[in-house]
Design brief:
Enzyme class: oxidoreductase
Function: Catalyzes the NADPH-dependent rearrangement and reduction of 1-deoxy-D-xylulose-5-phosphate (DXP) to 2-C-methyl-D-erythritol 4-phosphate (MEP).
Cofactor: Mg(2+); Mn(2+)
CATH topology of one domain: Rossmann fold
Oligomer: single chain
GO molecular function, one term: 1-deoxy-D-xylulose-5-phosphate reductoisomerase activity
Number of helices: 17
Bound molecules: NADPH dihydro-nicotinamide-adenine-dinucleotide phosphate, magnesium ion
CATH architecture of one domain: 3-Layer(aba) Sandwich
Largest sheet: 7 strands, parallel
Protein name: 1-deoxy-D-xylulose 5-phosphate reductoisomerase
Helix content: 40-55%
CATH superfamily of one domain: NAD(P)-binding Rossmann-like Domain
Order of helices and strands: EHEHEHEHEHEHEHHEHHHEEEHHHHHH
Structural class: alpha/beta
C-alpha cells in the first residue's frame, strides 16, 4: 500500500534529502503535501519534482506569488495555502500517514505538536520542538499513539542501539552522544570568525542555522536536551564525546560494559531512509562505509571552556523550568544576528548566557504557553542586541 507523506520544511536540506529517498520508492510513497517558509522558487522546484496535492508557504504574503508561479509551470491544480496555521493543519491532515518535520527552529513547535496529537508516524528532524516541548511533547506522543522516529543522526543512531533493550537494560544504560567538534575544533580563540567560516562544516552539508550551531557546540547542547526527552534518560546518563570523523553517529553503553554504536557515512539519507522504512530497511543511497579505508577513528573530550553553550544546555535542563526555551530562542536570534553580520561569533555565547541569567521562566503547561515564552524571549533578545 502506498504511504502518503507530508514534508514540512521541504525546501531545506533535510526536506530535499527526504524527497530524494522518497523518489526512489514511487510504489511505496506518494507526496501528499509540502510546506516551506518564505522562498517561492525552491518550493516551486519541489512541487515540480514531487507533484503534491497541496503546497503551503508559512509566509502568507507569498501565497499569490506562489500560486502564479505554480500556474506558470503548469501546476495550477495544486492547492495553495499560506500562514503558520496552515503548516500545522498539514501536520494533522487525515489524508496523510507520515509527517516529516524538517522546519528549522521553534517555528516547528506548533506543527510538531499537531502531528503528535494526530497520532501520525512523525519523522522528527526539528530538534528545537523537542527542546521547547520536552516532557509535554512526549506525553502528547504517548497519549495519541504517535509513532515518533528521530531523524537527527545521533538520535536515530541511539534509537537503533536501543532496539530490543528491555526496560531494565535501558534503566542502567548511558547514552554516548558523538559530536564532530565542528569547523573550529582545537581552537581556543574564536575571535574574528566570519559567517562563511562558521557554516563551512567539515563533515556534514546542512542548513545555515544548524551549521552555526554545530560550530558553537550549541547543536550538541540542543541534542543533549533532545536525547533526554526522546529516550527518557536523565541528563547525568548522557555524555558527549567529540569524534571528528563523524562515522560513529552515537552509542549506548550498557551496565555490563557492552557499548553498542551505530556507524555510517555522514549522509542524512541513511537516518531518513531508516525512519521512512522502519521496521524494515530501505536503501538511503548513502555511500557505503569501508572501515579499512577509514583506518582510524578518534575520540576526545569536548572543550567546554572555549565552547560554553554545551554546558549551558546541561544547566538549562537541570533548572527544570522554561530555561531550555529561553536558551533556544536566545540562540536562534543570536545566530540570525551573527549570520547577518550584526554580531560576532562569541557574542552568541554572551547573548545566550545573558538571556538565561535575566529571564527566569516557569515551566510552560501548554503549547500556547511555550509559544508565548518563545516569542517573549525572542523580543527581549532582539532588544538586547539592538541596544548593544
Ligand atoms: P534548512 O534551513 O536547510 O531548511 C529549513 C526549512 O524550514 C526550509 O524548508 C524553510 O523554508 C523552512 N522554514 C523556515 N522557516 C519556517 C517557518 N516559519 N515555517 C515553516 N517552515 C519554515 O534547515 P535544515 O534542513 O538543515 O534543518 C531543518 C531541521 O532539521 C532543523 O531543526 C535542524 O536542526 C534539523 N536537523 C538538520 C540536519 C541536517 O543535516 N540539515 C541534521 C539533523 C537535524 P524556506 O526554504 O522557505 O526558508
Ligand atoms: Mg545531529
Amino acid at each position: 500500500m502506498t504511504q502518503s507523506i507530508t514534508i514540512l520544511g521541504a525546501t531545506g536540506s533535510i526536506g530535499r534529502s527526504t524527497l530524494d529517498v522518497v523518489s526512489r520508492y514511487p510504489e511505496r510513497f506518494s507526496v501528499h503535501a509540502v510546506a516551506g517558509g518564505s522562498r517561492v522558487e525552491p518550493l516551486v522546484d519541489v512541487c515540480l519534482s514531487a507533484r503534491p496535492k497541496r503546497a503551503v508557504i508559512a509566509d502568507a504574503s507569498k501565497v499569490v506569488e506562489l500560486e502564479q508561479a505554480l500556474c506558470t509551470v503548469g501546476l495550477g491544480d495544486i492547492e495553495v495555502l499560506g500562514g503558520p496555521e496552515a503548516v500545522s493543519r498539514l501536520a494533522d491532515d487525515p489524508d496523510t500517514d507520515v509527517v516529516v518535520q524538517a522546519v528549522v527552529g521553534a517555528a516547528g513547535v506548533a506543527p510538531t505538536f499537531a502531528a503528535a496529537r494526530a497520532g501520525k508516524r512523525l519523522l522528527l528532524a526539528n530538534k528545537e520542538s523537542v527542546v521547547c516541548g520536552g516532557r509535554l511533547l512526549m506525553e502528547t506522543v504517548r497519549n495519541s499513539g504517535c509513532e515518533l522516529l528521530p531523524v537527527d543522526s545521533e538520535h536515530n543512531a541511539i534509537f537503533q542501539c536501543l532496539a530490543g533493550a528491555t526496560e531494565k537494560a535501558r534503566a542502567g544504560a548511558r547514552i554516548v552522544l558523538t559530536a564532530s567538534g565542528g569547523p573550529f575544533r582545537g581552537r581556543t580563540n574564536l575571535e574574528g570568525i566570519t559567517p562563511e567560516q562558521a557554516v563551512a562544516h567539515p563533515k556534514w552539508s546542512m542548513g545555515r542555522k544548524i551549521s552555526v550551531d554545530s560550530a558553537s557546540l550549541m547543536n550538541k547542547g540542543l541534542e543533549v536536551i533532545e536525547a533526554r526527552w526522546l529516550f527518557d534518560f536523565e541528563p547525568g546518563r548522557i555524555k558527549v564525546v567529540v569524534h571528528p570523523e563523524s562515522i560513529v553517529h552515537s552509542a549506548v553503553e550498557f551496565e555490563d560494559g557492552a557499548v553498542i554504536a551505530q556507524l555510517g557515512s555522514a549522509d542524512m539519507r541513511t537516518p531518513i531512509a531508516y525512519s521512512l522504512g522502519w521496521p524494515e530497511r530501505l536503501d538511503g543511497c548513502a555511500k557505503r562505509l569501508s572501515l579499512a579505508e577509514i583506518g582510524r577513528l578518534t575520540f576526545e573530550e569536548p572543550d567546554t571552556k572555549t565552547f560554553p553553550l554545551l554546558q549551558a544546555a546541561y544547566d538549562a535542563l537541570a533548572a527544570d523550568n522554561g530555561a531550555t526555551i529561553v536558551l533556544n530562542a536566545a540562540n536562534e536570534i543570536a545566530v540570525e544576528a551573527f549570520l547577518e553580520g550584526r554580531i560576532g561569533f562569541t557574542d552568541i555565547f554572551s547573548t545566550v548566557r545573558g538571556m538565561l541569567e535575566s529571564i527566569l521562566a516557569p515551566l510552560p503547561g501548554s503549547v500556547d504557553e511555550i509559544i508565548e515564552l518563545d516569542r517573549a524571549v525572542r523580543a527581549k533578545t532582539r532588544e538586547r542586541l539592538a541596544v548593544r
